[in-house]
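yo

u said u wanted the structure for the complex thing, so here. seqs first:
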Amino acid sequence: MGKVNLTLLLAAVAIVIIIAIALIFPLERLGQLYSLLLIFGGLVALLLRSIFAKEVDRRIIFLFIFVAVAAPLLFPITFSEKPTAVVKAVFDRVESLPPGSTVLLSFDFDPAMAPEVQPMANAISRHCLKKGHKVIFMSLWATGQALLTQSLTNTILPEFPEKQDGIDYVNIGYKAGNEGVLNVIVSNFEKMFPTDVNSVPLGEIEIFDDIRSCRDLDFIVSFGGGLPGSKEWVLFVGDPGGVDVAAGVAAVVAPQLYPYYPAQLVGILGGVKGAAEYEFSLKETYPDLKDMDTPGLKMMGPQTLAHIVIISFIVIGNIIYFRGRRKEKGQ
Amino acid sequence: MKLKLLVLCLLLSCFSVASAQEGTSPPEDTLLFDSTLLPAPVTNLVAFDTENDHGHAITLEWEISVDDGAGKQSVAMYEVFRWVPDLMTAIPSFRDTLDYLKLRTSSSWSEPEPGSRTDSIHSVFAKLDMAQLEQKKETLERTIGQAIRDLPAAHAAYPENGSWQQVAVAPSGSVTAEDVGTKEKDSPDYLPDYSDFYYRVNAVTADPDIRTPSEIFGPVQSYGQWFNLGRLAVFVFVMIFGFLTIFFVSHARRGADLYVRPLAGIEAVDDAIGRATEMGRPILYVMGLGTADQIATIASFTILGRVAKRVAEYQTKLMVPAYESVVMAVAQEVVKTAYYDAGRPDDYKEDIVFFVTSLQFAYVAAVNGLMLRELPATNVYMGKFFAESLLLAETGAVAGSIQIAGTDEIAQIPFFIVACDYTLIGEELYAASAYLGREPILLGSLKAQDWAKAAVIILVLAGLILANLGVGNDWAWANNIVDFFRVVD
Amino acid sequence: MRKVTIIVMAAVIVLFLASWILKAGAFQGEHDHYIIRGFLVTFAAFLTLAVMSFLYQDNPYYKFAEHLFVGVSAAFWMCMGFWTTIVQNLVPRLSTSLADFFEVPQRAEGLNFFFYTPVILGILLLLRLSRKIGWISRWPLAFIVGTTAGLNFIRYLRSDFIKQISSTFVPLLGRDWEGIGAFFSNLDLSATGQLVMMVSNWVIFLGVFCGLIYFYFSREHKGVFGAGSRVGIWILMITFGASFGYTVMGRISLLVGRITFLFRDWLELI
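structre next:
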């Protein structure tokens, strides 16, 4: 225990010194160099220790992950992303719909999932408005409405000052009832959403002139990862209503949605990686969006480093495990 | 009848303050153009009730104009017109008046914006007092109700008192269109069932004023169907599953010996109990966070019964920390019965099953503490687990216990697999419970599921072969079978 | 109390106050309620750090944050339930005066006696609180379970069963032979090349087939059947591994979110 505390203390002191130096000399390259050195130097040290059959305290792992995540945030490292087929399918669908199509975006997530899901929700909202689609925003989660409003007022609408509420987009907000809501709006919006969030009756909103139910929509994207979420959209709207649905979900549930692709889901954006790929495609297709905020792409730096750290720990852990087993056998 | 309708129309028009329906003028065919510009009309127009729906919709089919894609190539689109009685056209504007009256008589009334539609209605009723408004409201409500009831009769009066209105458009080249209304009586799109509708389709050129109407088709009525045959596959499978379940449950009740293969995880439980006895250390049984009505928890009770019986036989110590009071009560019963069955009722103590707390992470903290203090030889986790799965299993692994887990929460299975020695994956938990408990309902439904799985294997194989051969060889029957699985609405 | 505890607590309080003052100063001029805003950001940062401190070891700050979270979310959901379900969905359909009282728009088509049924069932559900007549709450519960099961059964059977069966009808031998060059072209995993497409179709078919065999309990897993079941468990394990990997990515995203908050909104480093 004493040794562990000493290692911890040394590591903490090292971080503080390195951050302090980086702050005094705000040279990005220097910071990147320092952090990479720290991470990989530490990993090599641990690997050596493990070869000599010394166990690693779990708190050391946490510390490594923290540095691997924090360093690229302070000194951004970005990568280029090649969109995979599941993400490209969603992008191409939004791109190929004729301008003026009606797209519904449902923000079915809470603050706990927001860092993962909000980047992709913002990217797709931006894409739809850029392309000239009419967008209906809604939420099946009580906590989603606040995040939806936040996305609209802080990020999306300031970029499109010419878009008008009720004509180019509408926010119909949250309605309690989980999949019950979906079961109704697949045949009638007005029954569940008599008004939008500003208490304007649906009948007076231009977008809803031709839209009576989900069946009249051209495309639906559900952002979420909990219940109700993308799966419920497929079960209660996509399949019975014959509407194309795509999912943007938290990474944890992405594997459970793959069986629905491509027959029941147009495409899947899984976690931050999906968001980063979408943002990359968007930037590539629309050069004027070059300066847009890309939280997804920015998150890939910390992700990559953290994953390298975790993979290294899996290797180190296995070395310890197999050494231990060999020793047991030897005895 | 006609007289009654006329009177109704007059009565309604008293209330009609608003302007008439906007848009769609009737397609009167006053030809002011060179008749050679006119496209040929569509032919063989038929209209029929849309199948597999709840009514209120009509499907139209026709043969395209000879000038569509050939001939003069002048057809740009088709417009579908329906004959609509004046009574139906009038209802929405009366409803506006009614909405105004409702608002006016409610407490949330405020003066309308000058020049708005509400304002134009308001100018007519402004001078009336509340009692008069209420009376007008009631009369209007009754009148609208009567008007809706009279719609079929008004349709039957074709071609008197009505006009043609556009109800759908279809791009050039299309041979079908749907006129979909709604069943909501207070919606402007309401389409009454069992009313005589008359349709015509115009072939329209790029200049929207140049169009040729088709022959009129009618009368045709819409009505709802009892069954949606597009969902036949769903019905067939519901029936098959229902039958299989009932059959096997009753079979098991009658004492039939239904074979369930032994599961590695369950055999491991027996070994682990033996090991605990040898080491003189206790066994920890965790039932997760589920409530007593969840299947995973019910399965867990059965397995607990078996574990408790073995524990009683070997005279080892058992600990069952509970998360919920009902679960605790049931678990106590289960353990008590097991001790009686093992012939050691004296060894049973009330505190084998004990309540901890109903707070997720507080429960984890308590159980983890128990693991580190008591160092159980074996930890068994069976039931519903959520975010606590890895926290529990990791601590157990650190404490050096043998761990056996089982849950139907798919998201938690990977965590148990990495941290436990044996894991019952999903359905295996139910199977283990059926295997140990021989409870007819569990056993019967497990058997029914097995049969369903066998059916799926066969269907997948057959479907694959048909899909691979049928598509290449254009076998219509093969495609029909494949299409059976593509449920349509 | 131990001396260390007191020193740590004093340090936390001093840091908290310093951060509050500095943040409030930074917000001055930008926001009207800069003192409250400064407090909120500082408090959020404190809670984040308090929860993260659990990684070192359990401590009172973590417990405080946890209990606060449990209490606040319980209250939040109760208020949400009341205002969105009862007030917005039910009240406008029950009575005009109630709707006016809660200032929610009335539903013209509403005011239906039918909507008193959920009110009655809801009250019956609340009888659970009583020991004597608590059993009555089983009736509305049975209603909920029954309707949900019925509704979901059809949906699941259709989307998760029948549609999934039809999704496995994939071309195993490839289609539209365009020569050996085209067959081996486009070998990345985006499944657009013919070979890759064919391989992924085989994986889908074998995965479904062997997975089903593994979960078939009426026969012992021996011989060919056993081999199939072993392939099945391998495929299951690969799936779990993939899901584990995705989980790691998800959790790290959340950590990035929190650290971004600390660095950007609190410390203003980035």
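Residues 85-288 of chain A form a domain with the Rossmann fold fold (CATH 3.40.50). Chain A has twelve helices and six strands.
cya
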